[in-house]
Design a protein that fits this description.
Layout: E1 3-7, E2 13-17, H1 24-30, E3 50-53, H2 66-71, E4 83-85, E5 99-101
Parallel strand pairs: 1-5
Antiparallel strand pairs: 1-2, 3-4, 3-5
The chain binds FE2/S2 (inorganic) cluster (FES).
Residues 25, 38-40, 42-49, 71, 85, 87 line the site of FE2/S2 (inorganic) cluster (FES).
Keywords: 2Fe-2S, Iron, Iron-sulfur, Metal-binding
Domain 2Fe-2S ferredoxin-type: 2-106
Protein name: 2Fe-2S ferredoxin
């Protein structure tokens, strides 16, 4: 099963095995990772699953839909060029090994 790394703002790192087709948010919530709140349960309506993707890997992610981009205007943490909502990123074999850094707040 492919794995990803979630990095807390303080540098603590958690590695998760994520089944293909499962969102990074779902995997993080199931594993009890602090810092992924996911209030809306993955409906792209809360922006509390915000993550920063490692810059070099941005092109490997699925394209961002306008709804995700609009919600990213509502994040508690600063929106950056590598911001994504983790509920909108579903695991694929191509994303294996990727790192996602969590913002200071959700
Ligand atoms: S879980 Fe609500 S926008 Fe991702």
């Amino acid at each position: 099963m492919p794995e990803v790394h979630l990095i807390q703002p303080d540098g603590q790192r958690v590695t998760l095995d994520v089944p293909v087709g499962t969102s990074i948010m779902q995997a993080a919530v199931s594993a009890g990772v602090a810092g992924i709140v996911a209030e809306c349960g993955g409906s792209c309506m809360c922006a509390t699953c915000h993550v920063y993707v490692e810059e070099a890997a941005l092109a490997r992610l699925p394209p961002m839909l306008s709804t995700e981009s609009e919600m990213l205007e509502c994040t508690a943490g600063e929106r950056r060029s590598n911001s994504r909502l983790s509920c909108q990123v579903k695991m694929t074999e191509d994303l294996a090994g990727l790192s996602f850094t969590l913002p200071e707040s959700q």
